[in-house]
Amino acid sequence: MAIITLLSDFGLKDSYVAEMKGIILSTSPDTGIVDITHDIKKFDIEMGMFILASAVRYFPDGTVHVAVVDPGVGGERKPIIIKAKNNYYVGPDNGILTLASKNEGIEDVYHINKVDIFKEEISPTFHGRDIFAYTAALIAERHKLCSIGEKIDDYLIIEFEKAEFRENEVICKIIHIDNYGNLITNVHSTDLNDLKLNFDSIILLQFRDKNYHINFQRTYSDVSSQELTALIGSHNFLEIAENLGNAGNRIAAKRGDKLKLTFLD
Fold it and tell me: How far apart are CA 201 and CA 197, in angstroms?
């Protein structure tokens, strides 16, 4: 059975997600559909990019991933398919697909422009339904990519800003705040190899005009309730968390803010 995943900033108040699923099931009735999330912050391409890249590695080979955070819908940006090493990515050419597909290994990219194969008139304001969902269903039905679009070499890749290391300190950026208020930074676990951090090592967190001395730990419950900690989260990035609390609210941080971390011991 083919699998199609859906990620968007549509929310669930309206019928948009259901319409996409209807197109998929009308075209490829035996396809399994999995919602990654439809709660991406409106128009937030980087958030969608991070969530997509976090989720896709847990799906079987051959999955078709549709990601629609598309503030440029109907404009000059291209609708594309990325054929990666093991999976397919369908969505707008605004960078949202490229982190996940680059992590996997991009093989080919196609501009979806052979619109004569589409059954319905294409709305200029809802490519998620009329182009991306339908394209994903065609791929699930094993249509050749060259029958859907033309191969291209010019497509947008967005890179996350890298953390800046200076001896025993790092200037890092919050790339995501999850539903628990955990501050996920752009420091990957491999970036910390040279620091030889041990559990219970002390880190000085500086944000705006406040200082926080926090312990580096294995998991949230290794510190007391409402105590801040630093740890390597499930996606292998350094995060700042508050056990049984909300670190984002605690230090009044938002995605995109920069933190200074000094490794004291």
Answer: 6
